[in-house]
Input
Amino acid sequence: MPRSAEAPGDMGVLEDKARARLFYRYLSKVYDRVNPFVWNEAMREEAIGLLDLEPDDRVLDVGCGTGFATEGLLERVETVHGLDQSAHQLSRAYEKFGRTGPVRFYRGDAERLPFADDSFDVVWSSGSIEYWPNPVATLREFRRVARPGGQVLVVGPDAPKRGLVRRVADAIMLFYDEDEADRMFAEAGFRDVEHTIQQARPGSPRAITTLAQVTGE
Output
């Protein structure tokens, strides 16, 4: 069932914004040490390689966290705009990049992005969709702030194939497969969508990376 059609009671415990903020208050302390086990530099570079980037492109990193993806994006573009709802994650990002410079940080909600229509050439989000209470609403926001002809790239957790494991996973946060990704992106108004499955190593959790082209109305 598409997430947009689910009742709030069906959502995972971390798809609640207050719980997610509390979770990241503690995770932020070890995030950069834990993250490479499921989302490493090689995977990040592969995902960035899917994008058609120019140095002067305006790039928004939604759910930027401590800036792991931001760091990779800065190797391709001059400036990145990073948004996150967690003050604790952003404080770690400030330690890496400073509060001024090539990264411009915002504390905000992915469902209500504080930017005008058509503001960005690329909207990126990795490790964030699994916490969104309403993924379709957020994807619509991505489409709104991306210019026509721009690109949206979202990295999320690929759904486990075994039924029991998936039920346990879904009780925590959003896991989804390619069919569910197709439904969510289509409902958000995207038409040109491609998926890539990524994995740090055999047996580790898999990521589903979706690249969508933004078309005009």
Summary: The helical segments are 17-27, 31-34, 41-49, 68-73, 87-97, 135-145, 163-172, 178-187. The chain has eight helices and seven strands. The chain has a mean pLDDT of 84. The radius of gyration is 16 Å.
